[in-house]
Amino acid sequence: MSGPDSGVRAAYIGGAITVVIAVIGWFAAPVIANWVNSIGKNSGAAVEPGSSGTSAVTESQQKTSVPEVGTGCATRDGKKVSCDSDGSGLISPAAACTPGDFLNSRGVDTTLQFRLKATTANRECIIYSAGATGNDIAGLSATGVPSVLLQCATQPDGSGFVACAVPHRIEFTTAWADRAVRSDATAQCQDRARTYSGQTLDSDALNAVALESGSKYRCAIRSLVPLTGTVWHLNGKPLPAAS
């Protein structure tokens, strides 16, 4: 068909198509924008104005890579190290930075004679012990006490302080006390030795002793042979005798 009428109809049809396309574009634009934005977020790309270009996943990874207070191990000057490193200490979450508060936080008997010390570095409390590692200290519990953390002595008279993990003859079971308060020191030390070791000590291998220094005394268990481990909660097991 030709002529003026056909030209008019073609113009009307063309205009209608233009209007329809414009309407579809107006409704579809937000949908397309949201789709593109979701793709950008999932791929880690920044699509929002003013974004630094760092994705949420990367920020989370950056935050978790920084050690939290009260976790991990460090040297005495606060340098973060592996917990099995020589000289490493354990970062303590206890409210007060003392060996006693740390032991209480772990439910450990504070009457045991530990070789623990505490220091503060970089606003963190570090519990350490000469010759021990952070892993040794982390192993402390109400039922487990590493020998390397306990006080012993190489000489029968209580001199020559060492950790109970190295050859020794004396293991201390109490702190120093005033003899004027307890005149029956020998009986007290015998009772303490039985409770400490979990056995009667009626053999010749182990003896309860009261070591004296002036008006003070300290209870201990003396071994006739060198030991390389604690007798705490020995409960009839073989002596940790040095080979």
Largest sheet, in brief, is: 6 strands, antiparallel
Helical stretch tally:
5
Gross morphology = globular
Strand content: 15-25%
- The amount of helix comes to 25-40%
Distance between the terminal alpha carbons, to the nearest Å? 116 Å
Structure summary, number of beta strands: 11
Point out poorly predicted stretches.
Answer: 6-24, 26-33, 35-69
Any idea what the radius of gyration is? 37 Å
Q: Return the string of H and E elements.
A: HHEEEHEEHEEEEHEE
- Which class do the helix and strand fractions yield? alpha+beta
Mean pLDDT: 78
Features:
243 residues, alpha+beta, 6-stranded antiparallel sheet, 5-stranded antiparallel sheet, 30% helix
What can you tell me about this protein's structure?
Strand 4 and strand 5 form a beta hairpin. Helices cover 30% and strands 21% of the residues. It is built from 5 helices and 11 strands. The protein has 243 residues and is an alpha+beta fold. The strands form 2 sheets. Strands 6, 7, 8, 9, 10 and 11 form a 6-stranded antiparallel beta sheet that branches. It has a 5-stranded antiparallel beta sheet with strand order 2-1-3-5-4.
